[in-house]
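Provenance

Sequences were taken from public entries as deposited. Structures were produced by running a predictor on each sequence independently, with no templates supplied. The record for SGNH/GDSL hydrolase family protein from Edaphobacter paludis is shown for reference.
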Amino acid sequence: MKMFARVLLFACVPFVTAGSYGQAPAPASTATAVPAPAVDTATAKEIASMQAKLNDWPQLARYSAENAALPPVAPGEQRVVFYGDSITDGWGRRPETGTFFPGKPYVNRGISGQTTPQMVVRFRQDVIDLHPAAVLILAGTNDVAGNTGPMTPEMTEDNFRSMADLAHANGIKVILASITPAFDYPWKRGLEPAPKIRALNAWLKDYCTQHGYTYLDYYSGLTDAEGGMKPGTSFDGVHPNEKGYAIMAPLAQAAIDQTLGGK
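Predicted structure for SGNH/GDSL hydrolase family protein:
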């Protein structure tokens, strides 16, 4: 037993090398700290933008205050929500896009850069809770561009189905607009979007026919022979200018009249 105690005591004594008595312990590492690489202003802005998107991916905060301030639908009023991406967002908000249906009870709920999955998430807040008679959905070009990651046509189609189902379940009439033309995307070159847009538009038209929804054909009035925007109708080949919106506005109004009975 005594022998076991002596062995145990010896095992607990730290090993000390010759000449180490009275000396301070050596630091764990003597390596010089390497400063983090400098981040340029452009990269810092991109990181901040990405962080903001992660914090509110569907951008529910964008219209929360405006939705709260929106008055209830007046008796006899037929509110229409224009729901979409930058092509809706920019309508009437910039000098080069003209006006957005003055005097009409139409509400703009477009958000620049959005894809259909983001729009599905905010559909209840920015459409259903506003109690419109109809919703006019213009989306899909950013899906083709891959703004929130690669997407198949089937993914985009499923999201259109989801938005239409949500609207229908809440007594809201559905207008699905064709995706507007684009021969190329300035922010993501080489994706050859024109044939992809034509294929999605064919699906949208057929889907509306099958389900009794209104199909709004912007595409035919805006496209050139190559599947891009007609000369003079856009300022970057994707986003309409005042002339482009002047073509779109009567088409949208005709679709609304058709859907709501011209009231």
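The chain has one domain: 76-260.
The CA atoms of residues 164 and 174 lie 6 Å apart.
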